[in-house]
Design brief:
With 249 residues, this protein is an alpha/beta fold. The chain contains 10 helices and 7 strands. This is DDE transposase. It holds the Pfam family DUF4096.
Length: 249
């Protein structure tokens, strides 16, 4: 069977936040559950929309509906509605994904998208924050050649957490000062180039593997592991949906 199904428990949590419910004003959507499963199938397998199995309906109709959801920011709203993060402590890091040729050629050129050229070809960097349970809290997209620190400020803005775990690439004075002013604990190893080495909680730092585990789960979705979306908004929608499913497992 080609269909990737949601469990009844997963659907019970997702259903209230889907557009076009019978209780909503306006047009009632046709089978929201089948639509979500169709998009999930595309994101999980990395297949082109034209290869969508007929049991999901006409591929072009499903695609147009998907684009409407992307433009109305529906996938991020779904993610945020179900996001009950435990920010006793948070972790940040970045991961690089290659961009498939299907993900190139967006209107306006690559300069308007988080796609950069590196030795390995066209790539995108996903900068993410996860909570104490390893679930996604927030993310931002960068060009691969941008340093991870470029994505830190939007990730920590307006967020409260007891401690921040990150590797030594994030050992910068402004971030350490920011965390001190917030009253948050910095669990970040010092760079070897620092003249004065500072202490950090080595036991707590061991939990940083949770963000690496999250990236591994995220890259099980092939359309994310090999970016095949031309625009950042569509690629971000895929990440929001995948993170929602990971969180509901």
């Amino acid at each position: 069977m080609t269909r990737l199904t949601l469990s009844d428990a997963q659907w019970a949590k997702i259903a209230p936040y889907c557009a076009g419910k019978e209780t909503d004003v306006g047009r009632t959507a046709v089978n929201n559950r089948l639509f979500i499963e169709a998009v999930l199938w595309i994101v999980r397998t990395g297949s082109p929309w034209r290869d969508l199995p007929p049991e999901f309906g006409n591929w072009n109709s499903v695609y147009k509906r998907y684009r409407r959801w992307v433009k109305s920011d529906r996938f991020s709203k779904l993610f945020n509605a179900l996001n009950d993060s435990d920010l006793e402590y948070a972790m940040i890091d970045g991961t690089i994904v290659k961009v498939h040729r299907h993900g190139q050629g967006a209107k306006g050129g690559l300069g308007h998208q988080a796609i950069g050229k590196s030795r390995g070809g066209m790539t995108t960097k996903i900068m993410a924050m996860v909570d104490a349970l390893g679930n996604l809290v927030d993310f931002t997209l960068l060009k691969e050649q941008q340093h991870d620190m470029a994505g830190v400020k939007p990730l920590i803005k307006d967020k409260e957490f007891g401690a921040l775990l990150a590797d030594r690439a994030f050992d910068t004075d402004w971030l350490l000062l920011d965390l001190e002013e917030r009253g948050s604990k910095a669990v970040i190893p010092p760079k070897r180039s620092r003249l004065k080495q500072r202490d950090f909680d080595k036991e707590m730092y061991k939990w940083r593997h949770l963000i690496e585990n999250f990236f591994c789960k995220l890259k099980d979705f092939k359309k994310i592991a090999m970016r095949a979306e031309k625009t950042d908004e569509s690629f971000a929608a895929n990440i929001y949906l995948a993170a929602t499913i990971i969180h509901l497992r």
